[in-house]
Amino acid sequence: MSASTVEQRVKFSDLSRDSKAVAAAADRGPVTITRRDGDELVLMRKAEADADRAGLALAAQIVAVAVSDWPSSFAARLREPFPWMIFLSDAEQEAFTDDLVRTARACASVAQFEPLSTVIHAWMSTAQAKAAGWDRTEYVWLDEQVEVERPDGGE
Questions:
Q1: Same structural domain for residues 37 and 70?
Q2: How many domains does the chain have?
Q3: Residues 6+ apart with CB under 8 A from 113
Q4: 31-35, 89-93, 135-139, 151-155: which has the minimum mean pLDDT?
Q5: Sign, CA torsion 103/108/110/116
Q6: How many beta carbons lie within 10 A of that of residue 43, not counting itself?
Q7: Domain range for residue 76?
Q8: Which tens digits make up the pLDDT trace of 45-86?
Q9: What's the number of CA atoms in the CB half-sphere (13 Å) around residue 144?
Q10: DSSP class per residue in 15-66
Q11: Do 56 and 38 lie in a common domain?
């Protein structure tokens, strides 16, 4: 759903009289279109509708896993819809599970599901990196910036 917190309502006749203004309002968030002789309609950007649909599909997967009768932990059951989790350590799988649940609840409370998708893609990127052989233990993280010479000897 939209980031707009102000409900926008217009009459159906406004679509033909001032469609440009109604479209501009829809760019700011969903617009409820009232009709005398029918149910209300909602006009919104397709990207918002797609994001809502994707977010609800993800939420449905999470609920399905949560209520399943598999005898394993919730994190282990999440490997069914998210098979890439196998590349994460047990601690990372638990962290992903916590992030996923907290973010899903927060997203549902504000009707914004893009952050849920972001969390999933971030963790999936971590799993992809680990599957490709990248491991954070291979690096030495510096506390302070260090100046290095250019490899070509130039400035």
A1: no
A2: 2
A3: 1, 51, 52, 54, 55, 56, 58, 59, 107
A4: 135-139
A5: positive
A6: 15
A7: 47-133
A8: 999 889 888 888 888 888 888 888 777 888 889 998 999 999
A9: 2
A10: HHHSHHHHHHHHHHS-EEEEETTEEEEEE--HHHHHHHHHHHHHHHHHHHHH
A11: no
